[in-house]
Amino acid sequence: MSLLDKCFAQLICDFSPYHTTLEEKLSAILSHSAQTINYYKRLLAATGIWKEGKVCLESFADLPVSDRQIINSHLVDLLSSKPKGKSYWNSSGGSTGEPVKILQDSFYLKQARSVTYYQKNKVGYRFPDSIIKFWGDEREIKYGKAQFGERARRLLKNEQIINTFNLTEEGMKQALQQIRQVKPRLIVGYVQSLYAFAGYLERESSSIPAPRAVICSAGVCWPFMRAKIEKTFGATVYNRYGSREVGNIACEEPGKTGLRIAPTVFVEVETESGITKSGFGNLLVTSLSNYAMPLIRYRIGDIGTLAEDSSGSFLKDIKGRIVDLFKTRRGALVDGEYFTHLLYSKPWLKSFQCIQEDYDRIVFNLNSYQTPDRAEENRITLEVKKVMGDNCEVLFNYCDFIADPVHGKFRYCISKVV
């Protein structure tokens, strides 16, 4: 480890969430909430979690789950009278539902930066290694360049941005030149943008200087995407999962199975039968570092699975948004990965999206090099009916363009039923 990296690591560690146990952090945020937040003063006392000035973690599972609707309805009552440091507003994009505003404080920000550094360090990053980020910057599109403060932070971190909001064919060419010039040791980006650039490298028979690692985020890292990115970038892909509401939640590490959960959050999995340590379900996230507006047992809108032998320290995988799962008329849930497997290896296909319009209606939006024969459509239809039922109608819509939503979170599978 270089002297610079040691100094940087020490600076980060001064605000590290790794020094205390999960129980200590959970007790601290609950105690803070019971004393400084109107909404939780009532709720924590009513459930027995806050009793006679002490926290009773044994009753934590009795606390009602919160969601975006609750936050938006009780926003003022969810604000703390004693945040840790300067506060600022952040918001989710609302790509799959109503947006939500969150007040965060400087203590949360410092802890979040510590987690991000730790995750990058685990995959081989050493400050001041060069970094290329495939990231969305709407301000750069609006003003023509990043604002001064952002440019200064990038310079300090030896970081350059490839703006994914402007990733045209010409933008791909410029990105290739930029990567060859910088020779980044770490590449970070939206998984969909990294996958699109990997496709560009394949089409152009081009290559880039291999980084030490690639970290992808802001979407489901499907196996076919991981394989193509690793092949063209010449480096191992590590999946990172997070959100604007609570920051980085979990990230893969070398030699580990699943994603290690960050010490700034407590994660539970909620199924129809209750909280579970096996099987997939709704992820409930409790923020342990944001004292301005703690999110407690927050249903974040994603589906995941805890590693069965991890005692809650690893996520086995992230299945995607709730609406990335399809639901049959019988009530069974079908993982969206089933549908991506039907299409991702087709040489005639540029890109695709699968939408469940109703229980018995599946639409494939296909951007293809050429229209496949009817036998190919029949084969796909047959495979869909195996899981969705014989009465399922399967439609194929051939189009010249499939729009990407903002923030790089392209969704291959969308259910309007779940």
Features:
four-stranded mixed sheet; 32% helix; globular; twelve-stranded mixed sheet; alpha/beta; 418 residues; 28% strand; GMP Synthetase, Chain A, domain 3
Give structural notes.
- There is one protein chain.
- This protein is an alpha/beta fold.
- It has a domain at 328-415: ANL, C-terminal domain (GMP Synthetase, Chain A, domain 3).
- The chain has 12 helices and 22 strands.
- The chain has helices at residues 3-13, 22-36, 38-46, 68-73, 106-122, 138-143, 148-156, 169-182, 191-203, 223-233, 337-343, 374-388; strands spanning 50-51, 54-55, 87-91, 101-105, 131-135, 159-163, 186-190, 213-217, 237-243, 247-252, 259-261, 265-271, 274-276, 280-287, 298-306, 314-321, 325-327, 333-335, 349-358, 361-368, 393-398, 413-415.
- The strands form 5 sheets. A 12-stranded mixed β-sheet has the order 6-5-7-8-9-10-11-16-15-14-12-13, with helices on both faces. It has a 4-stranded mixed β-sheet with strand order 21-20-19-22, covered by helices on one side.
- Strand 12 and strand 13 form a beta hairpin.
- Helix 2 crosses helix 3 and helix 9 (191-203) crosses helix 10 (223-233).
- It is globular and about 70 Å long.
- Mean pLDDT is 85; it is low at 138-144.
